[in-house]
């Protein structure tokens, strides 16, 4: 009820322990707190909070227009509704080393289990678009050192993302990944790898966990979890997938109203009221205060008025 009873510290410790097993952890991207609860209900290992999704939710492109305040607020809203660890996209840290330090502490206070800082220049852009630019090695490592020094809970995972593969090739990505680990990164996010062999090469080059970004319409093929586990990937994220699915369904629904005059033909594919109330834990609120919730949950299809 209300919020998760699992503390941020406990979630961070659990995330570290799961990463230490070497198993592949699956983190779908939540586009709101309710979708995070659904991700947990379906048995996933964690929740990803995408900067691209936060931007899109605000009607903005993913080019560094969102603020630390907006990202921290959404990270807190999502993290407090799930027992799962949350990993948040912190872009470039919203500035240079001092800004990165503040970013880490704000997101730590928001209850996340981990965050990643990238090496793009500002304004940044989606990692699977062309025209990216990255900062020099000195600036990239300073960001990671600042992030590591700023955290107060040693279990907060500081992941370094590098976008250099699309600019200077795989060898440069491996060299940078090694330097970022030397700077203190707990894990590496090599963005826009082109095939499984490239993930395997990064895996062989560093001793920390690595992450694969399985975003649709991107540079990488959508590898299966078995394929990724087979080359030693430790975390896979599906950052924008649920938003794309939801927005696709919303668009089809609006078109159905225009075409047919009602949503009758779409009802079978909708989440029922009973299922929504189950995710929201209406019965938990009943146990807390029977004056709040005193009505039976109707069953589909005759669920009654809102």
Characterization of the model:
This protein is 44% helix and 11% strand. With 306 residues, the protein is of the alpha/beta class. The strands form 2 sheets. It has a 5-stranded parallel β-sheet. A 3-stranded parallel β-sheet has the order 1-8-7, with no helix packed on it. The relative contact order is 0.12. It has one domain (8-239): Phosphoenolpyruvate-binding domains (TIM Barrel), CATH 3.20.20.
Helices and strands in order:
Layout: H1 8-20, E1 25-28, H2 33-41, E2 47-49, H3 51-57, H4 68-79, E3 86-89, H5 97-109, E4 114-118, H6 137-150, E5 157-162, H7 165-168, H8 170-182, E6 187-190, H9 196-205, E7 211-213, H10 225-230, E8 235-238, H11 241-260, H12 273-280, H13 282-288
Parallel strand pairs: 1-8, 2-3, 3-4, 4-5, 5-6, 7-8
Helix pairs in contact: 4-5, 5-6, 8-9
Keywords:
single chain; 306 residues; alpha/beta; TIM Barrel; five-stranded parallel beta sheet; three-stranded parallel beta sheet; 44% helix; globular
- Backbone structural class: alpha/beta
Give the terminus-to-terminus CA distance: 22 Å
Classified in CATH, the superfamily is Phosphoenolpyruvate-binding domains
Q: Could you give the order of the helices and strands?
A: HEHEHHEHEHEHHEHEHEHHH
Strand order of the largest sheet: 2-3-4-5-6
Instruction: Provide the CATH top-level class.
Output: Alpha Beta
The tally of strands reads 8
Name the beta content range. 5-15%
What general form does the structure show? globular
What number is the mean pLDDT? 93
CATH architecture: Alpha-Beta Barrel
Helix content: 40-55%
Task: Give the tally of structural domains.
Answer: 1
Q: How many DSSP H or I helices? A: 13
Q: In the CATH scheme, what's the topology name?
A: TIM Barrel
Structural Rg: 21 Å
Q: Which regions are unreliable across 5 or more consecutive residues at pLDDT < 50? A: none
């Amino acid at each position: 009820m209300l919020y998760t009873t699992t503390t941020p510290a406990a979630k961070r410790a659990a995330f570290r322990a799961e990463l230490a097993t070497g198993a592949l952890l699956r983190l779908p991207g939540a586009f709101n707190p309710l979708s995070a609860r659904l991700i947990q209900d379906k048995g996933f290992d964690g929740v990803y909070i995408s900067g691209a999704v936060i931007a899109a939710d605000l009607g903005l492109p993913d080019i560094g227009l969102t603020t630390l305040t907006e990202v921290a607020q959404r990270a807190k809203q999502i993290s407090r509704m799930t027992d799962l660890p949350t990993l948040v996209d912190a872009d470039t840290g919203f500035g240079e080393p001092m800004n990165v330090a503040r970013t880490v502490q704000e997101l730590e206070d928001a209850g996340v289990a981990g965050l990643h800082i990238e090496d793009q220049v500002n304004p940044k852009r989606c990692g699977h678009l062309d025209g990216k630019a990255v900062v020099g090695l000195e600036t990239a490592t300073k960001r990671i050192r600042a992030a590591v020094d700023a955290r107060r809970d040693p279990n907060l995972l500081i992941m370094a993302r590098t976008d250099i593969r699309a600019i200077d090739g795989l060898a440069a990505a491996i060299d940078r990944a090694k330097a970022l680990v030397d700077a203190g990164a707990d894990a590496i996010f090599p963005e826009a790898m082109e095939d499984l062999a490239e993930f395997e090469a990064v895996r062989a080059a560093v001793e920390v966990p690595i992450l694969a970004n399985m975003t649709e319409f991107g540079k990488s093929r959508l590898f299966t979890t078995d394929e990724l586990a087979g080359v030693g990937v430790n975390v896979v994220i599906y950052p924008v997938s649920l938003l794309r699915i939801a927005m696709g369904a919303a668009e089809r629904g609006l078109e159905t109203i225009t075409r047919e005059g009602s949503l009758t033909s779409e009802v079978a594919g909708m989440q029922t009221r009973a299922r929504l109330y189950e995710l929201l834990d209406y019965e938990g609120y009943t146990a807390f205060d029977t004056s709040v919730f005193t009505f039976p949950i109707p069953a589909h299809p005759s669920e009654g008025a809102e």
